[in-house]
Structure formats: structure tokens, C-alpha cells
Design goal:
α1 packs across α2 and α3 runs antiparallel to α4. The longest helix is centred in the first third of the chain and has 22 residues. The chain has a five-stranded antiparallel beta sheet. Strands 1, 2, 4 and 5 form a four-stranded antiparallel beta sheet that branches. Strands 3-12-11 form a three-stranded antiparallel beta sheet, with no helix packed on it. The protein is about 30% helix and about 25% strand. It contains four helices and 15 strands. The protein has a single domain, classed as Creatinase/methionine aminopeptidase superfamily (Creatine Amidinohydrolase, Alpha-Beta Complex), CATH 3.90.230.10. The protein is α+β, with helices and mostly antiparallel strands.
Length: about 250
């Protein structure tokens, strides 16, 4: 496993790409409403990336066709934007994207409720997934382990009766979208790779309302919950510094 340690100057470059990702996501969020298609979200993201002069990180990655992943309801990750997929009141949609600026990647995801009819159970799923990400980030500091981070995420999720997806994990990030190490959203404290100052990782809990099992559809990309339960996804790119975690997105 080759862990890439970033200099403070490289982390500053990643902060720039991270801020652009955040701005793109906040722009796309405004288009999430009943009647919008996931292709409308894609088009909004493309427009914003062009405005920043940012290169999309996902489009063309292993043949992926779009700049966003838009995963609706029981879709966990890697849903492909489409004019046919129209959002309805009460849906949830995970929006995951990344950009490259000055050779460095930023990667982040949010899950947004559609319309005003948000079922309390759905709101809880979103709140708990966000809280689990925050808990994982709080566990980050030099000398902590990836097991500490994964356990911090897992404990928040399972305490509320939800489950952590195990088939997909977070990852190191830098001059490539996916670098070592893999960053599971579950684990045991004190186990796994030790974190070092200068590491940058993308932490991305995917949390199911039902069981953790997922399957990939025939398009070769879209992952869905096996039991049809809803799934939420939040992600930040985070640098490990002497002071602890610094969120770059």
C-alpha cells in the first residue's frame, strides 16, 4: 500500500478543488425539486464546473458517462443521470461529484430530500448519516487508526437501527481520485492503518434504512439495496493535520 503524504502547499491546492466541489453541490441542490430529472441536475453541475474552469473527476473514469452520480431512494451509489428519472415529492437523491483543479482532486456527496413531504423516518436516515460522517471526521488525528474512524461511523449508524454498507468504502485522494488507503465505514478501534499528518482521505458513509446488502444493476454502475430500503450517502474530503481533521470540501 503506497500512502501519498501531501505537503501543506498540496493540501491548499486540494482545498481549492474541494471548495469548487462544495459550490457545485450547493448549486445543484437548488434544482432538486419534484418534476426535475436527474439529467437536469447533471446539466446544472456541468454549467457550474465550466464556470470555474474545473475538469470533472467522474466523467470518463473507468468509462463512467457523467459528471454526477445521482442515486435516488433505494439506489446507494453510482446512479447515472437520465432524462427519464424524474424526482417526486418524498424521494431522496444522493448527489456525488468530484473535480480536478491544478492536478488535484476534490470529492464530496450530499443526500437531499425532494419536496416538502419528508417522512420523519427519511429525515432521521439523512440526519444519522450526516452525524456518522461528522463522528468519523472527529476521530481523525495523527496516530489514530482507520479502525477508529470506521468504528466512529458505525456506532452512530447502528445505535439508530440503520446499517452501514460494506461493499463500498471511502478512499485516499490526491492527484488521483482513488488512492490508498481504503477507508471503510465500519471497523474496530485501534485496528488498521495508522493515520499520518499529510494524508488526505475521502470519508463517505453509505447508510441503509434496512439491511446492508447491495447489488449492482445491469447498467454495471448503479448499486441498490437488496431489500429495497432507502439509502443515504454523505462524503467529505478531509486532510489529516497536526491539529486533527481539516475538511477540504
Amino acid at each position: 500500500m503506497a500512502i501519498m503524504i501531501k505537503t501543506p502547499q498540496e493540501i491548499e491546492k486540494m482545498r481549492r478543488s474541494g471548495q469548487v466541489v462544495r459550490d457545485v453541490l450547493e448549486h445543484v441542490r437548488k434544482f432538486v425539486k419534484p418534476g426535475a430529472s436527474t439529467l437536469d441536475l447533471e446539466n446544472a453541475a456541468v454549467e457550474k464546473m465550466n464556470e470555474f474552469g474545473a475538469k470533472p473527476a467522474f466523467k470518463g473514469y473507468r468509462g463512467y458517462p457523467c459528471v454526477l452520480c445521482t442515486s435516488v431512494n433505494e439506489e446507494v451509489v453510482h446512479g447515472i443521470p437520465s432524462a427519464e428519472r424524474v424526482l417526486r415529492d418524498g424521494d431522496i437523491v444522493s448527489i456525488d461529484t468530484g473535480v480536478i483543479i491544478d492536478g488535484f482532486y476534490g470529492d464530496s456527496a450530499i443526500t437531499v430530500a425532494v419536496g416538502d413531504k419528508v417522512n420523519p423516518r427519511i429525515k432521521k436516515l439523512l440526519d444519522v448519516t450526516q452525524a456518522s460522517l461528522a463522528s468519523g471526521i472527529q476521530a481523525i488525528r495523527p496516530g489514530a487508526t482507520l479502525g477508529d474512524v470506521g468504528a466512529a461511523v458505525q456506532e452512530v449508524v447502528e445505535a439508530e437501527g440503520f446499517s452501514v454498507v460494506r461493499d463500498f468504502v471511502g478512499h485516499g485522494i490526491g492527484t488521483r481520485l482513488h488512492e490508498d488507503p481504503q477507508v471503510p465505514n465500519y471497523g474496530r478501534r485501534g485496528q488498521g492503518q495508522k493515520l499520518r499528518e499529510g494524508m488526505v482521505i475521502a470519508i463517505e458513509p453509505m447508510v441503509n434504512a434496512g439491511k446492508p446488502d447491495v447489488q449492482v444493476l445491469s447498467d454495471g454502475w448503479t448499486a441498490v439495496t437488496q431489500d429495497g430500503s432507502l439509502s443515504a450517502h454523505f462524503e467529505h474530503t478531509v486532510a489529516v493535520t497536526a491539529e486533527g481533521a481539516v475538511i477540504l470540501t
